[in-house]
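Bench notes, afternoon.
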Amino acid sequence: MIPELADIRNSLSDQNGLKPIKAVALYPGIELSCFTLKADNLSVHHAALDHILEINYCRQGRIGWKMSSGNSVYLGQRDFSLHTLKACADSTMFLPDGIYEGLTISIDLRMLNDDPPEILSGTGITGTFLYDKFCKNTCLTSLAGNEQTEHIFSAFYDQSEPFCLSWQKIKVLELLLYLGTLKIDAKNRLSEYQAEQIETIRAIHEQLTEHMEQRFTIDELSKQYLMNPTTLKTMFKSVYGTSIAAHIKEHRMEQAAKLLRETDLSIAEIACRVGYDSQSRFTAAFKKYSGSLPKDYRVD
C-alpha cells in the first residue's frame, strides 16, 4: 500500500462525513479505490504530494473539480482525468447530479520508477514519463472516454471471485500501456473553465430550478449574465451533462411527480407551477417522462 494515502483517505472521509474509502493494492505503489459519493460538493484538503498520480474515472453521475489554480473541469460518464495530489491539495469537488460513482487508481510515481511491473520493462512507461506527459507544472489532464477506454475501465467492476483481483491487475497494466501510446489533442481533451464562468453557470442553474414556473430563453439568460449564448450552452452541457432544455425539463417532471405524490393540488395548478400554461401539454410531457398520465400516477 502507499503509506501517505491511508491518512489522506481517512482525513477526507472525516472532513466530509463519508464512509471510509477502501483501497486494493494491485502492484507496489499502485492502488485501486472504487466508491460512490452522495453530496452537492466536497472540500478537499491534504498534503500537496507531487509524486502521487491519481487517475479518476467516472462510471455514473458527474463530478467537477475547482483546482487550486482557479480553473474547473467536469467529468461525465466514461470520462477520466489524471493529476497529482499537488494539483488537488486544496480544491472543491462538485457533484451536479448529487451523486457520483467512479474509481481512482493511485500511483506512487517514484515507486513506479524504482520497481515497475515486469511487463512494462522496455516500454518507457515510467513514473517520470507519466508525470511529464500528463501532470507537469501541476497540470490536470482530463479526457473524453471512448470505446477502448470504456473496455478497460468497465472491467474493473463486477468480476467474480476468485478472478477479480487478477482482472484488475491485468486492466491497470492495459491502461498504462494505453496511456503510453495516447496522443492528446483537442478532440479528446475536455475543456477547462475559469472559476468565474462556472459560478455563472451554477447561478443560471439555480435561477432555472428555483423558478420552474417561469420560462427563460437563452437570449434572456445571455443578456442577464453577460455571456455569449453559444458559450452559455456549451458550458452548461459541460457542467450538467445535457442541454439546458433537457436538464430543466427533467427537473420539472421530477417536481411535478413530487407534487402529485405529496399534495392535493389540481393537475392544472401543478402544470402551472412547473412552467406549463397548457394542462394538455403538461399531461403529454409527463406521460412521456413517467409512462403514466398525471391522474393515474397520483392514484398509483
